[in-house]
Amino acid sequence: MSEPSATPPVGRQLAERRDELNLSQVALAELIGVTSTSVSAAENGRSSIQRGKRSAWERALALKPGTISRAYARGTLLEPLDDTSVSTPSPYADMSNPRERAIWEMSISEADRRMIIDLLRQERHDSGQRPA
Description:
The chain is mostly helical. It has helices spanning about 10-20, 25-30, 35-45, 50-60, 65-75, 100-105, 110-125.
């Protein structure tokens, strides 16, 4: 009897998913809000992704929520989102809006950019302003 094939290490799976999405390590790092060195370390198994950053990685790589934690804990395969085709994730910001575009291009984590954009949108909604 042959043994079942082993699940690839999480880092290798992350690198394969990044390649499927045609993202460089630098581009992925920018989407997540980490350095390209951090991406390289995670992909090469030199470090595990911090729990607090896993959801940002999952959003950037169009993976199901919790899949990275499950892969680390149980040795399972990463699970892509069902409703996405393999393509580069589009920005959360309305890039035609100068304020949202400026926020999106800031050198802060994607989670922080999303939070600031949400606050901007809520403030516009509350004041009855139209988008700029």
